[in-house]
Amino acid sequence: MNDVALIGAISIVVSGLTIAVGTVAPALGEARALTQALASIAQQPDEANTITRTLFVGLALVESTAIYCFVVTMIIIFVNPFWNYVIGQVGG
Q: pLDDT tens digits, the chain, 92 residues: what are they?
């Protein structure tokens, strides 16, 4: 396996790991936050509006982590600086 194929394989594996961890971990966090919010609303129904508003802000922040991981994955696949460097060295 030459250097170009090795860089390509490593990029694909790293991007796969990034999107896997970046989607599973926020999903677990969102599930935990939702569970806690529902338990809090069940215990204090008068505070449902405040708890719901805080829950939505928290879910948006957690979801942004998954979006960042998706962006990093796209960068690794399509705009990989190591890939461009190796192609430049092999071709030029």
A: 777 788 888 889 999 999 999 999 999 999 999 999 999 999 999 999 999 999 999 999 999 999 999 999 999 888 888 787 888 887 75
Q: How far apart, in whole angstroms, are the C-alpha atoms of residue 27 and residue 32? A: 9
**What would the two tokens of residue 73 be?**
């994955």
- How far apart are alpha carbons 55 and 30 in whole angstroms? 9
Identity (one letter) of the amino acid at 29?
G
pTM: 0.74
Helices (H), the chain: 3-43, 48-78, 81-91
Tokens of 17: 């790991």
Which tokens hold the place of 86? 């190796």
